[in-house]
Amino acid sequence: MSDFLPPPGPPGAEAAPGASVPVIEERMHPLSPLVRLWIGVVALGWYVVTSFLQGDPLWEDVDKLEELLTSAPWWVYVAAAGVAVGLGFGYWSWWTNRFVIDDREFRLENTGAFQESQRIAFSRIQSVDVTQPFAARLLGLAQVQIDVGAEGGASLKYLKRARATEIRDYLMARAHGRTATTAEPGRGASAWDDSATGDHVLVRLTPGEIILSAFATLDMPLIALGFTLPWILGAVFDWSTLALGGGMVGLAFALFSYLSKRLFEQFNYTLARTPAGLRITRGLFTLRSQTIPTHRVQAVQTQQPLIWRWLGRARLDVTILGVGDEDSDELGTSLIYLPFGTPAQVQVALAALWPGLELDQLQFTRTPERARWLDPLQWEWQGYAADDRVLVGRSGWLHRRQFIVPHARLQSVTISQGPFERRLGLASVLTTTTDMFDANSVNHLGETHARALAFAEMDRARTSRVAELLDPPGLRDAVVEADPAGVVLAGAPDIWTPTTAPLPALLPAPVPTGSAPSTE
């Protein structure tokens, strides 16, 4: 990391006022074009190797190479031409692109046919992630993704893995306002989980836990039923194999997509606190190291399917400012914060985002009994809780959900009332953060109680934002440790137990016509 030190100038020389001091200027790794076209290169290499292994021609029969070329199918020539052209353009791009880091900003320079210069000030950097695609991982390379929020970012494809981690740590240090000149001793990142000396592991999931999380859902039985049902129907109604095959292809894609997202992408999961911030590392074939900007987390949702309730596990999803579902797919950013955790691990993960938050200490308020006409199965579980920091609401029956929104992240609070709710004297409170299309709702409260909650939340949001402006959130120093064995210890927080409190005595809710008086 000593390369980041500015080059020494002549004695007595000083930088001109307002001039930036170059720190480093580099190209990407020379093998980067091969990583971009690795599928084509592997396909051509496979054809040549299999042709020799089949004896036509033999390895020692060099004279028959001409016969191999003349007998090759047309698609081999097309693929070879495409790979050659792609490598040519790839090396031209590699030669004309470089990145520059000075004492003020990061720059990505293109000196090709169209000269471009992308500049990113250190203060605009939100997070820096390191991704190791499968082909790059085999060559010891990695990609650096610089995120600046909704305005896009920059990507360095590809650098040596050690160099990529140095660039990431340096940029994150400058983004946090710290002066960084040399790398910390012994912070060489591991090729398997991107861990380094000085990282504090908070939660680590074993491969068995990830496999269990993928198969212990109702999705897998439905996919299995989708595979077996066509064959049963085909045997009963004598359907053609072609019709069955078409359905099998779609189901195979669905199965691969599900396993890719739930198993391959979450494999080898680690949540750690590092000098650069909170970091998640995961991936079986493609290893992704994702920095979580805690100040941009807008909300967290806890999900617990039916089978997971029996296992005492849950999943945490996050809403991050400037990152939506489409953006996460494009940037390789996962919105799954904790894929499969015990109550103790969930508490650790939440405390890493918001130190001091203890959900088991919150007292939930349940919806009134007349809400069972609209929610006959979930009304006893449905409710909300609030303290001076967050609003928590829960819903669901077979698949239970619980959202957590800091008051300072609330953008708007809405009261809605449908015709059936109006008939029963109920109303729902919708809260939105920066993700306006994903509102969190506390459903079917008493009318007066819903109104009181809405006004109280607006007051809490205003107060929390003022407090945050006076004391901006920085890198949290609090460290909470989880049980390394993943065992729920005696007295561990159980955040899914429906601890409820009677509704506060505000004002009596309107009584529906023809109904008996309620003692809410």
TrEMBL record:
**Pfam families named among the record's database cross-references:** bPH_2 (PF03703)
Q: Where is the signal peptide?
A: none
**What residues does the YdbS-like PH domain cover?**
94-171, 268-320, 380-435
InterPro entries xref list: UCP026631, YdbS-like_PH
The scientific name of the source species is Propioniciclava sinopodophylli
Top-level taxon of origin: Bacteria
Q: Write down what this protein is called.
A: YdbS-like PH domain-containing protein
| Coiled-coil positions | none
